Amino acid sequence: MKYDVVVIGGAFAGLTAALYTSRQGMKTAVITKDIGGQGLLTNDIQNFPGFESISGFELASKFQQQAQLYGTEFIYDEIVSVNEENGMFISKTREQSYESEALILAFGKTPRDLSVKGEEKYKGRGVSYCSICDGPLFRGKSVIVAGAGDHALQAALYLATVTSKVNVIQKTNRISGTQEMIEQTKTLPNISFIYESEVDEIKGDKTVNTVSLKKKDGTFEDMKTDAVFVEMGYVAKTSMLKEFVDMNKDGEVIINMNNETSRPGVFAAGDVTNIPFKQAVISAGHGSVAALSAINYIHKKHGRTAPKSDWKYIDTSKLEKA
Q1: How far apart, in whole angstroms, are the C-alpha atoms of residue 50 and residue 217?
Q2: Can you tell me whether residue 210 is helix, strand or coil?
């Protein structure tokens, strides 16, 4: 599949970059395991301009809606390798390859796997790392949230609005999270907590239909479910970039003032870079710089003059319906 720009990462940097490239008429794909990244861990952002207070979940949703309005395509998968062939960049998942003229690295940290039998087999077929992305696919069905803390509770709260039943698996004998989030989940009748249990195996046929739960006493119990939403936090995965772009000793991608990396045509923004300040507004700003640099790179590559204005107009009244 060919694109002008591929953005790896669906948090604030990646979503902003996609918004800018799409508005400039670039065919753009965002490849990500989730939408919002670590921003989803924050329930009350009070320092993002334009909002006195907004949750990371809601802010990420707004970013995604706006990018989609201008034509950004979203692919929910995980990139396992990147390379350059004949002047084009090839971003590969386990089953698909995506070709682009410019590449924007904006993945920060990646959702952590559950690391159980069957997880790899059913990724994209009932195993999800993004409740915002995939929740609507299971409207009216029963799902499981495997994780802990407010991140898992936030996912459960959202899923409870679109699914018929949400079972949250808790390894201990109590709910893990802040009291405010715990109280919110308790108000919803279709959220249940399964205590002293953990997912041991994910089973199914073509898609997920059962999980095997390991109990504290060592026994096992099968539970029917239509999906498993994994909410286990995040881990940095920059090893695939070794020898592709220059990185510092901390595994961060080194960029210049134009968000260019050591490899022409590859740009980076957000927490994956060596910028010391890891804030949502800074990531968004750097996402726009990376996008504009990518746009200029593509136009220059084809002997064109890059447009000086953000030209595309659309009726933003459609935004609420997107």
Answers
A1: 51
A2: strand
